[in-house]
Amino acid sequence: MNDARPDHLTWRHLALALLLLAGAGALVWRLVVIQVLEHERYRDEAALLHYGATEVPAPRGAIISANGYPLATSIDTWDVYLDRSRWDDHESATEAARGLAAYLEPGAEAIYALGTEEEDGTVLLARDIDYGTGLLIEESGLAGVRLTPSSVRVHPEGDIAGQLIGHVGLDDRGLWGIEADYDHVLRGRTGIVYTERDVLGRPIAFGVRREHPPERGGDVVLTIDAVIQRIAEQELARALEEYEAPSGSIVVMDPHSGAVLAIASRPAVRLTDIDLDAPELSRLVRNRPVTDLYEPGSVLKTLTTAAALDLGRITPQSTYVDEGAVEVGGYTIRNWDFQAYGEVTVTEYLQRSLNTGAVWLSERIGARPFYDYLLAFGLGEPTHIGLSGEAEGLVRTPDDPDWYESDRATNSFGQGIAATPLQVLTAVNTFANGGMLMRPYVVSEIVTPAEVRRFEPVAVRRVVSPQTARGMARLMFDVVETSLYSAARVDGYHVAGKTGTTLVSIPTGYDLDTTIASFAGFIPYESPRVSVLVKVDQPGGQFNLGGQVAAPLFSRVAGRLMEYLRVPSSAGLVASP
């Protein structure tokens, strides 16, 4: 038994030696991998641990009006952070807290408590402090205080066009409007600063520093004229108060190019005093002329009349016998005033806004051609203005299984059909520009450090002939200027336009006690400079018709626009037939 023991120990020693040798070999191999085979990889990883990267936000581009006023721009600010790991010394922490208290709220004691309540970590002390104040804090060299560049969005023109302009969130991204739709242009490219750091991750005072500077965002130049926008908003607010109406819209355009000069709606968001958590925010930021549908009412009689003229079915002197009511598809359709006028001309039908006349015209046109014209005028499809949330509208045609002959009749005078205010005014523009459907647009230029991109007017298609357009313009002139009385007239200028009144749609049909009052037209008639659509929802009191509510609002807006644009008076000019 004694002779076997040395052999046993020998094998144990040998196994241990082999194990140690294998471990040493693995260690050597690992060193070879680290030092030779994957040297560059581990060198880069060590560099990442040794260097810290900090993002530097890019200055956001501005949103600028057509006349050069900044509607939204950014001001450079600073965010102030405390590095708690640097406040482990009571004396330096107290000194830094007192130094910060000279520039910021809260006081020194509160700042000290915030910076020392935990041993490690970084805490935000203040956001968006004044740029000059930030420089003073940085120059103070206070221990554990770090400033990072930031910016705050401001609106030099105040609260105008809040739904269109939009707002920027804390992440510097647009939440709605131009700020959201053109965020990819406005935001720019974030910069990065690499700094050498110690083992605790703190910047080394005189260490290596490398940076890729941020690239400023591009500017978005709008077609919106800041003065015209303010006029539209002022007059709309005045009208809603006067007529006790909860909401309304005004759109002003250049009828020749499709450029939107103003787009106003109420209720509206206030960009200078905004609560992003307010439950009514979604209602306030809605750009109603683009997103909301309504039944245009008698304004649409201009499209029906234009289709009949363009097809040669009628002339302005053509007549029909108005009996005050007409039956179509089992439904009786009456004039809005329940009156019968006997033999009337096309001119008189449009002046009196007779529903029976529109039905008569739609019959002469024929169902399919009638809807072909409505679609050609842009109803039932987006205008492609380039703003999110745009509604398509609603037009039933004979190809739809739930279409009836009565639809053609009611559609002829603007009921049973839905469109946005922008769509309606875009269609009416064809009578001011010679018969072309122009695509509305609200952005004229995008200016970046690399290029300037300009957006030109786009003619979508010809809808009616130039002769038809002139004829319709004359008929709309007669509606306003040769009637016994029209509240849409503007002293010193000739106006062409048409009122609209429709009942408010409800799930069971129509609310007989509420209306939507509207007016669409252009001025001056001889050489249109602007087209305007005004719409007042559910006016209260004793006045609720388009001629009583919307026509006077159009007159006030158009009169102020003529003065601002310095358009020569129409006085002395004779309107050509």
Low-confidence stretches: none
Structural class: alpha+beta
Mean pLDDT: 87
What is the C-alpha radius of gyration, as a whole number of Å?
35 Å
Number of helices: 19
Strand content: 15-25%
Instruction: Report the major sheet.
Output: 7 strands, mixed
How many strands?
A: 21
Measured between the Cα atoms of the first and last residue, the distance is: 136 Å
Shape: elongated
Helical amount: 25-40%
Kindly summarize this structure in a few lines.
With 577 residues, the chain is an alpha+beta fold.
Report on the structure:
The chain contains 19 helices and 21 strands. With 577 residues, it is of the alpha+beta class. Strands 2, 3, 4, 5, 8, 16 and 17 form a 7-stranded mixed beta sheet that branches. Strands 10-9-21-20-19 form a 5-stranded antiparallel beta sheet, sandwiched between helices. A 3-stranded antiparallel beta sheet has the order 1-6-7. The radius of gyration is 35 Å and the shape is elongated.
